Amino acid sequence: MTVSPSKAEAAARAGGGGETPASLLPAPIVSDVTSEHLRQVALGAGLQPMGVLPPLRQYLRDLWARRTFTWELASSKAYARNRNNYLGQAWSVLTPLLNAIVYIIVFGIILKTTRGVDNAIGFILVGTFMFRFFELCVSGGGKSIRGNTSLVRAIRFPRAVLPVSVVLAELVTLGPAIVVMLVVTYLSGLGEFSEYAYVPVSWHWLLLPVAVVLLAVFNVGCAFVMARWVAKAPDVQNLIGFAMRFLMYGSGVIFSIQHYVGNEVIQTILERQPVAVYLELTRACVLDEPTIPLTWQTWAWGVGWAVVFAVGGFLYFWRGEERYGRD
Amino acid sequence: MTDAELDFEVDPEDLEGWAPAAREIGGPSLVVDHLDITYRVFGGKKLGTSDESSSRRLRRVVGRGSSHVGAVQQVRAVRDVTFVARHGESIGIVGINGSGKSTLLRAVAGLIPPTKGSVYVAGEPSLLGVNAVLMGDLTGERNIMIGGLALGLSRAEVQARMKDIVDFAGIGDFVYLPMKAYSSGMGARLRFAISTAATPDILMIDEALATGDASFREKSKARIDEIRQGAGTVFLVSHSLATVQAICSRVLWLHQGRLVMDGPTEEVTAHYKAFVQSLRKQQAKARPKG
């Protein structure tokens, strides 16, 4: 058919293409070159096989090399989120606050599920803000591969950038929300509100960022797992909402587990599962509840869960690296 | 397949000085070994209404039990394709709609993992497609930054090239507006400028050159030549045979996911042209006269 520039190519076309006169369509070129021969040619020329799982060390190095990209993606996402509203960025504070107000009215004031808690407003505020952070990271992590298919198919980069940037974006958005959370919590305990205990501004507040970062690390692990699951089976995204509702009631976001769960074994399990641990940790930092002391034990659990989930989630995500973007 | 999608008309001003420059052909830069790509498509119903039966034949359901639950279809987009590309080569990929051109390009770029077979590649390929939308809500400036960082440039490098990229794309002050406010031509030009900002080892262009006026085409042609001169390999998918003839030294013809012809541009395009014209005649005959 043509003069081929190399042996490999000539061989690659050996089966090839006379025209079928009726349709003018040549017969498909069926190459009889063995894969082994092509492999030799490719590796001989210093080419790298593609779609093969990158070694873990190299993957980590690539991921680190794209840290500016990850950060840029996160901050852009955080900024772009509320651009279509009149109130713009104010919504990143208003949404969690309105969300918390609903729970405070229904559960704190009407149903009074926060019995055994001195300051119900602070208790529910911290609980809903932190749980929302977790929830957004998980559902955002789930969408991180599937929702960015065009980017994934356009440019090659370590895909772990996407779940990480989702959590970073949520963290950036959480910053101002935390300030509002602290202010409202403090105001709730002032003077005339005799019903709610005074929340002193203590040095414990300085530990809140540490607790939030631990939660964020834990969230990254969860986002990794969800990203791979949803990339594999999009149906999982639909289940996240239900799982989250279950977790919300199982973590004492709007009530105290201690006060409501009688069975000691179940109580211990519910209190030591990661989401409850982080809620306890953040509450212990902000509030002045005698039932929620800030203990080394809680910190240990928080660090432990963060490490286990981040490492496990990352490895799980990395194992699927070469499959993302397929569908 | 409409006539608009197949553009044989050679615009003389476009072609001036556009003959693919003869260039040193180096060693292999890409080896594609018996590549098969099968897509999973969710929730599709059986495709192929009467007027597009020929072009969409490929996408036909393999498992016919298409129902509303578990409607997952397998699409065999690329089947048993083998070829070797070399440094300094510019390769066009032609074929009618649904023949697997874009899928092949994405697989070769390492963006879609092979179902069977393998792809070997030198360096980092960069794919430039019309659909490679970065983020519509963000300004062009921010998109340039994200795109550049994704390609592996540093923040300082992107900033240094920012002006070049904006000038190349010819979008002027629009760079400060969200990309969703851009015309499709502006978006495509900006994407081309971003994708070529980091001189890639392998540049893949998917229909992107169709947009833009003669002067932009000339600029992009010069940019492509530059990449080839730097021992890069350029792949181009285009419905415009004029563009393929102008840029490519070698052409692959895909049909229903299979490679049916591989050779110098003149030879393959001549055969392909004849094939498409006969196909068109046949369709015209089949079409009821109204």
Please tag this protein with its features.
heterodimer, A: 327 residues, mainly alpha, B: 290 residues, alpha/beta, 6-stranded mixed beta sheet, disordered N terminus
In summary, what is this structure?
The complex is a heterodimer of chains A (about 325) and B (about 290). Chain A is mainly alpha-helical.
How would you describe what is shown here?
The relative contact order of chain A is 0.12. Chain A has helices spanning 7-12, 35-44, 56-65, 67-80, 91-110, 120-146, 149-154, 161-188, 208-232, 235-250, 257-260, 264-272, 274-286, 296-319; one strand spanning 48-49. The model of chain A is unreliable at 1-22 (pLDDT under 50). Chain A is built from 14 helices and 1 strand; from the N terminus they run ααβαααααααααααα. Chain A is mainly α. With 290 residues, chain B is α/β, with parallel strands linked by helices. In chain B, the strands form 2 sheets. In chain B, strands 5-6-7-3-8-9 form a 6-stranded mixed beta sheet, sandwiched between helices. In chain B, helix 3 crosses helix 4 (155-169), helix 3 runs parallel beside helix 5 and helix 4 crosses helix 5.
Helix-strand blueprint:
The complex is a heterodimer of chains A (327) and B (290).
Chain A: H1 7-12, H2 35-44, E1 48-49, H3 56-65, H4 67-80, H5 91-110, H6 120-146, H7 149-154, H8 161-188, H9 208-232, H10 235-250, H11 257-260, H12 264-272, H13 274-286, H14 296-319
Chain B: H1 12-15, E1 28-42, E2 72-86, E3 90-94, H2 101-108, E4 116-121, E5 125-129, H3 140-150, H4 155-169, H5 184-195, E6 202-206, H6 214-229, E7 233-237, H7 241-247, E8 250-255, E9 258-264, H8 265-286
Parallel strand pairs in B: 3-7, 3-8, 5-6, 6-7
Antiparallel strand pairs in B: 1-2, 1-4, 8-9
